[in-house]
Amino acid sequence: MLPASILIAAVLIAGSIFFVLGDKNPNSDQTDDDQLTAVASKEEALKLGDRDVILGNPDAPITVIEYGDFQCPWCGKLFAEVEGPLRDNYIQNDKVKMVYRNFAFLGPESFAAAEAAECAKDQSKFWAFHDALYELEHKDGQEHNGNLNRKLFLQIATDNEFNINEFTTCIDSGKYTDKIKSDTDLAQLAGVNGTPALFVNGQQVGGFITYAQLSPILDQIIGAN
User: Fold this and answer.
1) Are the C-beta atoms of residues 102 and 114 closer than 8 Å to each other?
2) Which residues lie below 8 Å from residue 152, measured CB to CB, with a gap of 6+?
3) Coil, helix or strand at residue 70
4) Is 191 left (phi over 0), alpha (psi -120 to 50) or beta?
């Protein structure tokens, strides 16, 4: 997504941060009960589940969830420019835990990569696979260039000492096809309509967001606890 899609606006007013999520339309026919149901559904969609692989201390006070597409250039930029210092300064210090969720909407390559990443979870190697995919896919910053393919997935698996037979069976069987479709539905329920979409403790803080924008938000939350 373009930077203009950023919803962050971490506005420091009287020592507090406000996350701009959109105002209720006064002309809307939606009832208060409907609004409460939508909020509850969003909260449910954002809850961590059994298939979420946590990077960092599970007891860290801040949860960062990224919805991404491995083919998305802005997701690649987020990985290249933001995730490194986020890991060094917050995740490794037990201040933040991070979860990556698939929102594979850019086409068949994206969908195949998301399925392969789910297969990597079965061998407890998701983050190694995630990192390698972004590093290799975004060397040229192009979408739909054929990079995300079975050959690449198997090469990454080999480099990271996967059980290749199990991994190959998983990606060839379509084991996680339905899950990737379900992930998209749940992401939309949480308010995601593009990538990257970043949530901090349940509040969406942006599409693409720089580390300089993200860090004060995290520090504000840490300081309030």
Assistant:
1) yes
2) 133, 136
3) coil
4) left
Instruction: Quote the distance between the C-alpha of residue 190 and its chain's center.
Output: 12
Q: How many residues does the chain have?
A: 225
Give me the amino acid identity at 4: A
- The sign one gets for the Cα dihedral 200, 204, 207, 209 is negative
Alpha helices in the chain (DSSP H): 32-46, 73-78, 84-86, 108-121, 126-137, 150-159, 164-173, 177-189, 211-224
Under 8 Å CB-to-CB from 54, ≥6 apart: which residues? 48, 97, 98, 99
Instruction: Summarize pLDDT for 13-42 with one digit per residue, the tens.
Output: 222 222 222 333 434 455 555 555 556 688
Ordered structural domains, the chain, with CATH: 3-224 (3.40.30.10)
Q: What is the pTM of this model?
A: 0.81
CA-closest candidate to residue 126, choices 166, 147, 151, 157: 157
What pLDDT digit, counting tens, does each position of 179-215 carry?
999 999 999 989 999 999 999 999 999 889 999 999 9
